[in-house]
Design brief:
4 helices, 344 residues, mainly beta, 9-stranded antiparallel sheet, Beta-galactosidase, Chain A, domain 5, GH-type_carb-bd, 38% strand, Aldose 1-epimerase, 24 strands
């Protein structure tokens, strides 16, 4: 597995409404600026605060390089199950092999394609024997707009099913409540089956809801999960299934709104990752404030084995693994755009 502490290749591309940069490690979108209609430049993608620090050797490569946005195939990793509710198969999750966090492609260097006008392309070949043969990824700024279009192609060696996600990380203002998540109608929302981080919980485990403004809370009172960042130390995950449209994050402190749109026929859920100063150990050190918006076909990003099983999300009618045909490319198209918030 590649060590991200060794510098990878970086490529950048400017267009009428911004500049984007992509690193070879993880194929991750890095520092990216958008020029808004009012002339301001904003950088909505989050870059881990330890990006220029020496991180401990036991930190996984993906976390060490964490930034921006990238695809995760297969998505997930085993979670400790001590706090899981009885509806979830603890034995299956406990027995899942560790594997690279969020898949091989999240922990290795991609290869850049030859220069092409108006876009950056990358590919990565998976190890022999893996059900995935390769991934291709294209990032294409939209001329005349503060937007980037993405194209992800997954080629399988053999017929398989895998959890898949697009891992977007977005910056939040420092002041509690100065950002807001705007979500469309969704069929069902779910709280995590256990504790994501001991001592940093906010939501009651393994509950369902239909309004992000009223999520079952630990103390029995509903929690409005749309106003960010939270005022206390929180590390949580929610999953929304069956969304009717894109998700937006309004950064009131920055005066802009980010809209994330994707192919919901292939990725029917979104995992919301609330990392709100909840992890106190290195390299997090209680300083991280980020919202992960992660369109996915998964069961909470638990181990791939759990997502492949007849888990409670799948039992509820939402697929948790994407069907991939041998020798064919499955294409996932998505888009991130930014706009200025109206001035008051």
């Amino acid at each position: 597995m590649t060590d991200p502490r060794a510098p990878g290749e970086m490529r950048s591309l400017a267009w009428s409404h911004g500049v984007l940069s992509v690193q070879s490690f993880g194929g991750m979108l890095g520092p990216t600026s958008f020029v808004l209609g009012d002339g301001r430049q904003v950088s909505p993608f989050w870059i881990a605060p330890w990006h220029a620090e020496d991180v401990p050797a036991d930190v996984d490569p993906m976390t060490a390089a964490l930034r921006g946005e990238w695809p995760c195939i297969p998505f997930g990793y085993p979670f400790p199950t001590d706090s899981f509710s009885g509806r979830w198969d603890r034995a299956l999750e406990d027995a899942a092999p560790p594997g690279p966090v969020h898949g091989y492609s999240s922990n290795a260097n991609w290869s850049f394609g030859p220069p092409a006008e108006g876009q950056i392309g990358l590919r990565i070949d998976y190890p022999p024997g893996h059900p995935v043969r390769r991934l291709r990824r294209t990032l294409r700024p939209v001329p005349g707009a503060a937007a980037i279009e993405f194209d992800l192609s997954i080629e399988a060696r053999r017929p398989t099913r895998l959890p898949v996600a697009l891992h977007g990380c977005f910056s939040l203002p420092a002041t509690p409540g100065l950002a807001r998540i705007d979500v469309p109608a969704f069929r069902v929302g779910r709280t995590h089956p256990g504790r994501v981080e001991p001592g940093a919980g906010l939501f009651e485990s393994d509950q369902t809801f239909v309004d992000l403004c009223s999520v079952p809370g630990l103390d029995g009172a509903p929690v409005d999960a749309t106003g960010l960042p939270f005022g206390s130390a929180v590390e949580e995950l929610l999953q929304l299934d069956g969304l009717a449209g894109p998700i937006a994050l309004a950064n009131l402190g920055g005066g802009y709104r980010v809209i994330f749109d994707w192919d919901r026929a292939l990725l029917p859920s979104v995992v919301l990752w609330f990392s709100n100063r909840g992890r106190q150990y290195a390299p997090w050190n209680g300083r991280t404030q980020v919202l992960g918006i992660e369109p996915a076909c998964t069961a909470f990003g638990l181990s791939p084995e759990t997502s492949l099983s007849d888990n409670p999300v799948a039992q509820g009618g939402t697929p948790t693994a994407l069907v991939l045909a041998a020798g064919e490319e499955t294409r996932i198209r998505y888009r991130v755009s930014v706009e200025a918030l109206p001035t008051r």
